[in-house]
């Protein structure tokens, strides 16, 4: 029987050929079926009449259609099965000699070339060898792909695309996953982040670890089988299997309580042993109880499908590694109360540059005592001028030229930092010669949880004279900071040779003052620290904390960052750089002062790169030159001043704008022109009087207009309205196809555009161009429920609901007013998505005439009156802002 093997293996059970699931591919595990027979049952291929290759070891069949590959990998495109690779299986030990390897490779080449695919694989059960069929046929010699991993769907995808080393940005995947997790669980953003990172690591490690380390039954792809088939085979859903078997396997591979092998850490902190108390995964938002976990299986599979569609997680875009955490944590107001302002990468990198880590000697220590997710510790690994290749793996051990150490009290952040480091070490994870034990050692030697006292964290064990460079963004907490001093007072005994009550007795306000004391004592003589501090700490008048810092350190730089540098606070912040003094009589150097107006990205929530506007990067370059004795860049910049150390005493402010004149600050855009007190009073009185009169007139007008007869209409009335959603489009794609058509999304301000794109490109991707006026409702995010009228040619994203008005007797401006009231009455909150169906449920009241017809003239009068009212509100707001920010001469 020609297809007996295919029938026995169930590949024709449905009447049409269907292989086993292999990620996004299908696999035929055969060996006795010819290529001729495969083509006959639906595999789309045109076998050649002969193979032009000098087979020296393998006796090739005369006819390519007679080849019998052991495995065939196919991609299903609609109803077509297209082969993409073949493989030959050899018994263990059959690749011992070079001749055996060459014979197997030639056999694999023949089968692949016969089926017309470019990837041939041969395996002896311990190692997979990948043959480049096209190159081999062209060169008449075996050519191999540079791939060392065991075969899995990600490896096959990488080989087909040739993108193993091409960095991918998974931000869209993170955004999609966040939405799915949040809507299913309503968990805190931090829990959603932990869940995403856990599943990200499941996919990442499944794509890169050897099979001997992570068997197939514990991999991402094992979960992708049809849900009903999976349940029948295993007696449980995929999510239950994941929780019961795969999660414990990952926690076994990356165990908690891993002991740090670098004893220098113990010595630095003054402790006998350092353990990492977490694995690399923790906090699966779906796992509230074993009884309810199966109810989340559909959502779990939806997330897995999103990961599958995204493709291999092999090389990860460095930008993503830090910005991932902002994607999730910017949604949580709670983070701000905790003082956890995660540092933007566009600030981290210039600070690392200024630290000149590449000049450090072997064995030097770089420390972040408030490491969070590890940006300052991990970013130096990513670029040549810092610490590339600092982490090496030799004979099952990890080695570091420079010790990079991150401390934190938050165990979730500690776990996320370890996960982040694994992603940074993607090349090592892909390398079969690097063991999981060596990776574990690198993680535990890099990130240390100091949580014996949950309040004090790393402050409880201050290093003494042992650190070469500190890079940190310590937490900002002033209200409630007294609890830290109470905790210090309760500590019994010495910590690293000091009494904490005396050590931290500097009288400073806020946790950042305690960290400054920690930092000044930790540095070696000549060691430097680059610290992000709030403006309020620098311009406070209390002298004691400043005196304590100056006793041990010199101020070497004070750099003002622009407002809104940090995503979740508008507070102005500074980079303060200090250097540990060698002796009490060392002369103090001049202080490098600078004002950064830009950091290379927009300072709104979008954070769009603006590489041509990056004062901070230029300032970092000038600081490096300044540190080397070259003041040319500093002297030629309007943004930089070199100031005597006498201006930075304990009694001085340490912010820097005082070193620029008013005219210079106005020119730099830092300050508006000052007004006299008399002018301020006159302008304020005029504004108040004008607004008061306008408010009275608006009140009278609205009272007269709101007594007309009204009738309720539902937006589901298809005679009057057509409610639809916009179209999904990425900002990156818009920027790549610039044009004249504005694209609007869900922003708080109606004027903000997502971008502008060409009409030709928008039409090519199926995006509707709005040629007629429409009313829109923001359907997602912090501006959910905002209603705007769009009366220009534009395009709308899928975060916005569109209402087409089908009756000429409805005024769009009035409809928008009524919709705002309907949305407000509905109580739609931030992050509660307004779907099309929910908008159709809204009801609006419209004025009607005595005969029951719609009264458009009355609509227009009310709309005009409300618009004037809104303008008055805006004027009132602007007057208040001007009053608060005005500088009085």
From TrEMBL:
Recorded GO MF terms: DNA binding; N-methyltransferase activity; site-specific DNA-methyltransferase (adenine-specific) activity
Coiled-coil blocks: 681-708
Source superkingdom: Bacteria
KW Transferase (keyword) present: yes
PANTHER family attached to this UniProt entry: SLR6095 PROTEIN (PTHR42933), TYPE I RESTRICTION ENZYME ECOKI METHYLASE SUBUNIT (PTHR42933:SF4)
Family stated for the protein in its record: Belongs to the N(4)/N(6)-methyltransferase family. Belongs to the type-I restriction system S methylase family.
Protein name (record): site-specific DNA-methyltransferase (adenine-specific)
Species of origin: Tropicimonas isoalkanivorans
């Amino acid at each position: 029987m020609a297809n007996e093997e295919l029938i026995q293996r169930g590949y024709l059970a449905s009447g049409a050929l269907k292989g086993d699931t292999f990620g996004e591919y299908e696999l035929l595990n055969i060996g006795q079926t010819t290529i001729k027979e495969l083509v006959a049952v639906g595999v789309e291929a045109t076998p050649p009449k002969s193979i032009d290759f000098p087979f020296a070891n393998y006796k090739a069949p005369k006819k390519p259609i007679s080849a019998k590959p052991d495995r065939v990998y196919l991609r299903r495109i609609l109803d077509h099965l297209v082969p993409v690779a073949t493989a030959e299986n050899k018994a263990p030990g059959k690749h011992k000699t070079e001749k055996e390897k060459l014979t197997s490779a030639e056999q694999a080449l023949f089968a692949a070339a016969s089926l017309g695919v470019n990837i041939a694989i041969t395996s002896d059960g311990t190692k997979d060898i990948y043959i480049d069929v096209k190159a081999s046929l062209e060169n008449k010699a075996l050519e191999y792909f540079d791939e060392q991993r065991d075969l899995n769907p990600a490896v096959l995808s990488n080989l087909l695309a040739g993108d193993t080393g091409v960095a991918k940005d998974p931000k869209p995947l993170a955004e999609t996953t966040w939405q799915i997790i949040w809507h299913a669980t309503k968990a805190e953003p931090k829990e959603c982040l932990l869940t995403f990172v856990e599943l990200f690591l499941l996919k990442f490690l499944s794509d890169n670890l050897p099979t001997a380390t992570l068997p197939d039954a514990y991999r991402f792809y094992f979960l992708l089988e049809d849900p009903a088939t999976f349940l029948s085979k295993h007696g449980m859903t995929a999510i239950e299997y994941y929780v019961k078997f795969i999660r414990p396997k990952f926690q076994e591979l990356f165990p908690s309580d891993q002991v740090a092998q670098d004893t220098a850490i113990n010595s630095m902190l003054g402790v006998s042993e350092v353990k990492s108390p977490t694995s690399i995964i923790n906090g699966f938002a779906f796992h509230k109880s074993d009884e309810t976990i199966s109810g989340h299986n559909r959502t779990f599979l939806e997330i897995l499908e999103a990961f599958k569609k995204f493709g291999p997680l092999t090389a990860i875009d460095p930008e993503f590694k830090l910005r991932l955490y902002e994607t999730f944590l910017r949604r949580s107001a709670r983070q701000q109360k905790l003082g956890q302002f995660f540092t933007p990468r566009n600030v981290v990198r210039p600070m690392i540059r200024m630290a000149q880590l590449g000049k450090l000697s072997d064995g030097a220590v770089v420390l972040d005592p408030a490491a969070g997710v590890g940006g300052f510790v991990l970013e130096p690994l990513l670029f040549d001028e810092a610490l590339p290749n600092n982490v090496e793996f030799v004979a099952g051990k990890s080695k570091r030229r420079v010790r990079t150490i991150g401390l934190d009290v938050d165990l979730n952040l500690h776990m996320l930092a370890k996960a982040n480091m694994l992603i940074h070490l993607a090349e090592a994870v892909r390398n079969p010669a690097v063991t999981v034990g060596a990776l574990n050692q690198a993680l535990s030697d890099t990130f240390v949880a100091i949580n014996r006292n949950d309040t004090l964290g790393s402050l409880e064990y201050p290093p003494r004279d042992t650190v070469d460079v500190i890079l940190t963004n310590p937490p900002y907490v002033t209200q409630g900071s007294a609890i830290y001093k109470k905790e210090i007072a309760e500590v019994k005994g010495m910590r690293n040779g000091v009494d904490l009550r005396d050590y931290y007795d500097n009288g400073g306000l806020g946790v950042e003052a305690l960290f400054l004391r920690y930092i000044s004592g930790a540095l070696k003589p000549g060691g430097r620290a680059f610290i992000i501090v709030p403006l309020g700490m620098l311009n406070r008048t209390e002298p004691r904390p400043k005196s304590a810092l100056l006793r041990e350190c010199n101020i070497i730089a004070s750099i003002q960052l622009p407002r809104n540098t940090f995503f979740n606070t508008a507070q102005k912040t500074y980079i303060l750089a200090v250097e540990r003094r060698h002796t009490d009589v060392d002369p103090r150097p001049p202080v490098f002062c600078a004002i950064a107006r830009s950091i290379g990205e927009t300072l709104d929530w979008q954070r769009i790169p603006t590489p041509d506007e990056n004062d901070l990067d230029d300032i970092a370059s000038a600081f490096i030159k300044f540190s080397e004795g070259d003041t040319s860049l500093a002297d030629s910049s309007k943004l930089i001043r070199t100031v005597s150390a006498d201006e930075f005493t304990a009694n001085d402010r340490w912010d820097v704008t005082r070193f620029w004149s008013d005219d210079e600050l106005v020119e730099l855009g830092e300050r508006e022109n000052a007004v006299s007190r008399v002018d301020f009073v006159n302008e304020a009185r005029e504004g108040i009087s004008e607004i008061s009169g306008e408010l009275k007139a608006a009140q009278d007008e609205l009272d007269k207009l709101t007594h007309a007869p009204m009738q309720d209409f539902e937006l589901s009335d298809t005679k009057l309205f057509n409610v639809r959603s916009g179209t999904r489009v990425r900002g990156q794609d818009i920027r790549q196809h610039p044009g004249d058509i504005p694209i609007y999304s869900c922003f708080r301000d109606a004027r903000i555009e997502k971008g502008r794109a060409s009409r030709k490109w928008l039409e090519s991707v199926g995006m509707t161009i709005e040629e007629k006026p429409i009313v829109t409702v923001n359907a997602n995010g912090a501006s959910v429920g905002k209603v705007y009228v769009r009366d220009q040619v534009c395009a709308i994203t899928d975060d916005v609901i569109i209402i087409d008005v089908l009756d000429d007797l409805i005024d769009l401006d009035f409809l928008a007013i009524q919709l705002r009231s309907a949305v407000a009455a509905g109580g739609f909150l931030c992050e509660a998505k307004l779907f099309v169906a929910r908008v159709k449920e809204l009801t609006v009241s419209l004025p009607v005439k005595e005969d029951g017809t719609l009264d458009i003239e009355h609509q227009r009068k009310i709309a005009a009156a409300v618009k004037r009212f809104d303008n008055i509100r805006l004027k009132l707001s602007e007057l208040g802002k001007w009053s608060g920010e005005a500088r009085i001469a």
